[in-house]
Amino acid sequence: MTSSYYYDAYPKWAEKWNSKKYPAKMFGGKSWNLLNKQSTYMYGDEDDNEWEMDVAGFGKTFPHSYGSAKGKYFNSFLIYSPAGDDLTLSFAKELIKGEEIGKDDTTDFLAISFSSTDYVGHLFSPSSLEAEDNMLRLDRTLADLFAYVDKYVGLENTLIILSADHGGPEAAGFLNKHGIDSDYVSPNKWDKEPSIEKLKKEFGIGQELILDFFPPYVYLNQKVIAEKGLDLAVVQKAIANELMTIKGIATAITSSELQNNHLPDTYLNRKAIRNFNSKRSGDILILLSPQYYFNDFDGEIVATNHGGPWEYDSYVPVIFAGWKMK
C-alpha cells in the first residue's frame, strides 16, 4: 500500500503483480486444508470448539472453503487464513526484485507483516487446530522468504529481525474449560446501565451521555455536558466510578486525571499514562481485568482479543539473526 504522498502512480512491478490477479488464480475455488495428517497435530481432535467463530460461512472446521473468487467474502477469507501470508510473500518477492533491495552500498530496510497469525488467532484462538496449522505454514513461509533473500541478496549481508505487535491471549471459553476465570466485556449497552441512567438524571441529561467506545476509550457527549454547564472532569469521574463496578473492568481513569497526572504510581497507571494522547484520546480510559476481553474485532465477534495491559498481552519477544550477530 502507498499513497500520492510517496508516488503519483504505482511502480511498474507492482502494477504487473496486480494485473496477474494472484488471489483469484491461487485460491479461487480452493480451500484451506491441513498441511499434515490431522492425527499428527497437538489439537488434532479439537477442531470444533464452541468458542471458535464461523465468519460469513468460512466454517469452524477443516477444510475452510474460500469459495469463488467473485464471492462477497472471498478476500476476507484469504486474510482469515495462511493464504494472506502467501500473497504477502509473493508481493514481497516482487518488491525485493523491483526495488533492487540490497543491490548498492546503502542499507535498505524492508518491513513485512505476516498477519494471518493475528486473524487466525482472533477467530479460532491460539490453542486451536487452525492456529497450529497456520504456525506450521508460517514456518515454511519464512523459510521461503529467507531462501529468496539468500539467493537475491545473500543472508550474509542481511540482518533478520522477528517480532510482533502484541501477544496472543487465550479464548475465554478455553480458559474457563481449564478452570481460569475469563469472560467478554461488552461496552455497547453501558449508556443504558441503571447506574449510568441514574447519573444522567442527576446531571439533567435526557439523551446519550456515552456516545462511543473505541478501545480503550469511552467518549462522552461533551456537547451536551457543556450545554448543561457541567464540569467535564466531575462528569468523567462520576461515569468512571460507575463503570468500575462492572465485572471485568480493572480500572477506569479519566482524561482529566491523566492530563494532570493526579494518579498514584502503580503498574496500571503507568501503562495508562503512556497510552494517553491529549489531542485524540477519549474521556475515560478502560483497563480490563486479566483474561477479560472486549469481544469486537473490526466489527466482528471473535474468539479472543488483545489490547490489555497485562504481560501475556503486552510482552513480545524479539529475535535478531544474521549479519554481525553471534
Question: Your description of this structure?
Answer:
- The chain is α+β, with helices and mostly antiparallel strands and 326 residues long.
- The chain has two domains: 12-178 and 315-322, Alkaline Phosphatase, subunit A (3-Layer(aba) Sandwich); 184-290, Gyrase A, domain 2 (2-Layer Sandwich), CATH 3.30.1360.150.
- It has 13 helices and ten strands.
- It has helices at residues 12-19, 22-27, 74-79, 83-98, 116-124, 129-152, 172-177, 194-203, 222-227, 232-243, 255-260, 267-275, 311-314, and strands at 31-32, 64-65, 159-162, 183-185, 210-214, 217-220, 249-254, 284-288, 292-294, 319-322.
- The strands form four sheets. It has a four-stranded antiparallel beta sheet, with helices on both faces.
- Helix 4 (83-98) packs parallel to helix 6 and helix 5 (116-124) runs antiparallel to helix 6 (129-152).
- The longest helix is centred in the middle third of the chain and has 24 residues, at 129-152.
- It is globular and about 70 Å long.
- The two termini are 35 Å apart.
- The mean pLDDT is 95.
